[in-house]
Design a protein that fits this description.
The protein has 471 residues and is α+β, with helices and mostly antiparallel strands. The protein is built from 14 helices and 12 strands. β1 and β2 (12-15) form a beta hairpin. The structure holds adenosine-5'-triphosphate and magnesium ion. Residues 86-91, 94, 107, 109, 157, 175-178, 182, 225-226, 228, 238-239 line the site of adenosine-5'-triphosphate (ATP).
Length: 471
């Protein structure tokens, strides 16, 4: 792959500055980082073009999926500050990063596109994720089609964009950052037997999987490590690497893929399977979280698991530890015959989930109100102590992000100043961006504003106080 390239695959056109086209789009895709400062100068596919993704693909070299992008000046990578590695999966490495123009913390999944298997997995993931596109600026002005117009689903990890790094041969998928780890972390620390918590997890999961199934997709890899959580208590479905597009609601898939341990009996036996197989995987995942360990025998490998799933009754939760209603909920998910298993939308009506709608509405309302309250306070002047608000981790993350972002912005401003294109004074970060950062970190806006103000003062102090304030 050359040092400048665009990758075209199955209707997607991925460039160093983001997705230019997606299958079936009538317009150029919105993606992220394309605010006024990151325009696509020099792009062979100017903004506002109405060419379809297929047309776009036809313009590229079919041999290596490349078009020449030597004139492109701003890449998505330029706008991302990498913070640390979040983890490693079968598909590639996942990093934590900050998107500089928006101050949004994101997760970046890097996938090597030279590897054919990974490339196929990546395209599948992209297709599924694209249905849940959330432009990073949050402007909601998506020009993309179909489901995106319906609005993204808040119970699925949001997809912000994807871009190529030609020098590395990698595609990076930019995702919503989930700061609470996964349900697997809960399992690893002994599980969670609190039924109110389990009900809320189930409710949010079912809303998410119902959205996926309504778009004729099977997830096929539902397991605790693919259900991510954040400090707001949200649970979101991630990892669409082996998602399968179905032709219609009755369609069946028969390819043998996915994580063995959470596979439904019909899948592990190699029979046809459909939406009900995701319901089984969820039931078993929830069972594992409740118990704090995987409930089936795994010593016998594939054959042992096949035997226990096919020939033995489904596992059920201990009577003395869990309520009848919760045990019934799990039993419904783990019906051996997929035809007897309720759908996600039917399960949403199960008595175990009574009250979840109201609780979710209430917690969203509280979050909204606390954000409004925060916006009404001015953090720059007051000196009250807010040390007890938010976690220590969030506060040290704030320190790290503030230092990195402000130093970078200051360097950029100084360069512009040198060639006469800078604003007269080094600007403060807009309050709306600090508010979004505060929300993501779970900190008070005041605390974030104060931290940035301190850094801003330090930086302009370095200028000797004249050029930052000159009129
Ligand atoms: P597998 O490849 O078997 O699915 P995995 O789910 O662990 O394993 P990835 O989806 O590549 O693989 O993720 C690797 C790790 O990165 C995850 O375990 C998770 O801790 C972290 N991670 C992934 N996506 C996010 C995200 N959006 N926000 C925060 N952390 C994430
Ligand atoms: Mg995963």
């Amino acid at each position: 792959m050359s040092d400048s390239g665009t990758f075209a695959i199955e209707g997607f056109l991925i460039r160093p500055d983001g997705i230019a086209f997606a299958p079936g789009d009538n317009h150029q895709s919105p993606g992220f980082g394309r605010g006024p400062s990151t325009g696509r100068r020099g792009s062979p596919l100017p903004r506002g073009s109405s060419k379809s993704g297929e047309d776009a693909e036809a313009k590229t070299n079919p041999k290596d999926n490349m078009v020449d992008m030597t004139t492109m000046t701003t890449t998505a990578e330029d706008e991302l500050l990498r913070l640390c590695v979040l983890g490693k999966g079968a598909g590639g490495i996942v990093y934590k990063a900050v998107h500089v123009p928006s101050l949004r913390i994101v997760a970046i999944k890097k996938i090597a596109v030279f590897d054919q298997d990974k490339r196929h997995q990546m395209v599948r993931e992209l297709k599924a994720l694209y249905k849940n596109l959330v432009p990073i600026a949050g402007a909601g002005s998506s020009t993309a089609r179909g489901s995106i117009r319906e609005g993204p689903c808040p119970y699925i990890v949001a997809f912000h964009d994807a871009f190529i790094t030609p020098s590395e041969g990698n595609i990076s998928i930019v995702l919503e950052y989930m700061d609470g780890g996964s349900l697997q972390d809960i399992v690893d620390t002994g599980g969670c037997g609190l039924e109110s918590v389990l009900a809320n997890i189930s409710y949010r999961f079912l809303l998410g999987i119902d959205f996926i199934h309504a778009h004729h997709q099977l997830h096929r890899d539902i397991k605790p490590s693919n259900l991510l959580i954040n400090h707001h208590g949200a649970v979101k479905i991630s990892d669409f690497g082996i998602v399968r597009e179905m032709d219609g609601t009755q369609a069946k898939a028969s390819t043998f893929v996915g994580t063995l341990t959470y596979m439904s009996p019909e899948r592990i036996s190699g029979e046809e399977y459909s939406y009900a197989s995701d319901v089984w995987s969820f039931g078993l995942s929830l069972f594992t979280v409740a118990l704090g360990r995987y409930p089936l025998q795994t010593e016998g490998g594939y054959w042992g698991l096949l035997h226990s799933l096919r020939d033995e009754p489904s596992p059920s939760l201990p009577e003395d530890e869990f309520s009848t209603v919760f045990r019934d909920f799990i039993d419904q998910c783990l019906k051996k015959d997929p035809k007897e298993r309720p759908s996600a939308s039917q399960l949403l009506e199960h008595p175990f989930l009574e009250g979840c709608t109201e609780q979710l509405e209430q917690s969203e309302q509280e979050r909204k109100m606390s954000r409004q309250r925060d916006m009404m306070e001015d953090g720059r002047d007051e000196e009250d102590d807010m040390e007890d608000f938010g976690s220590d981790t969030a506060r040290s993350e704030l320190d790290e992000i503030c230092e990195l972002i402000m130093d970078l912005e200051y360097e950029r401003w100084k360069k512009k100043e040198a060639n006469g294109t800078a604003s007269k004074s080094f600007p403060r970060v807009p309050r709306s961006k600090l508010a979004a950062l505060a929300d993501q970190l779970g900190l008070r806006l005041k605390a974030v504003e104060r931290r940035f103000e301190r850094k801003w003062l330090t930086l302009i102090g370095r200028l000797g106080g004249h050029s930052a304030r000159r009129k």
